[in-house]
């Protein structure tokens, strides 16, 4: 039987994928005490980067939001692998977003809202979190966005 969070994801039309394997010398998540830290996830779908390029150049703001949302879906897949059950999450503590963009692009926050809005839609008030959003010149595999997260669990 699906838990509350898995049911909510289904209501949103989201199916979590198999978590992606790391592409370098790191682990996909670390659990310490009552926290899980999930490594940065790019917008991969079916084994391929679904959103590539730079915001302010080949990627518009709306597409960037969709990329950020897909990144969070991949973060949640890693989180489920870490905890076994997303209902164990008691709080989304922090999300970090990296936006590949041109030097003059300044709409980082609205792009990252794609991930933040989904966190709140999935976890309700427990999904409200601290956040940093940073513009960068490039990301692995030419991804447009990368999202990492820290979660409290019971």
Automatic annotation (TrEMBL):
Q: Tell me the InterPro entries matching this sequence.
A: Endoribo_LPSP/chorism_mut-like, RutC-like_sf
Per its UniProt record, what CDD domains does this chain match? YjgF_YER057c_UK114_like_1
Domain Endoribonuclease L-PSP/chorismate mutase-like, by residue range, is 6-145
**Superkingdom:** Bacteria
Which Gene3D superfamilies does the protein's record reference?
RutC-like
Name by which UniProt lists this protein: RidA family protein
């Amino acid at each position: 039987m699906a838990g509350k969070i898995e049911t909510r994801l289904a209501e949103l039309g989201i199916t979590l994928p198999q978590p992606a394997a790391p592409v370098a010398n790191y682990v996909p998540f670390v659990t310490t005490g009552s926290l899980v830290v999930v490594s940065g996830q790019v917008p991969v779908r079916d084994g391929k980067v679904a959103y590539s390029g730079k915001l302010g150049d080949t990627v518009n703001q709306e597409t960037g939001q969709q990329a950020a949302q897909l990144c969070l879906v991949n973060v949640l897949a890693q989180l489920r692998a870490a905890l076994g059950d997303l209902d164990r999450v008691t709080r989304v503590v922090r999300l970090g977003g990296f936006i590949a963009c041109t030097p003059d692009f300044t709409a980082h926050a609205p792009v990252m809202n794609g991930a933040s809005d989904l966190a709140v839609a999935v976890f309700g008030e427990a999904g409200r979190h601290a956040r940093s959003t940073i513009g960068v010149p490039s990301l692995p595999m030419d991804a447009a966005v990368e999202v990492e997260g820290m979660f409290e669990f019971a």
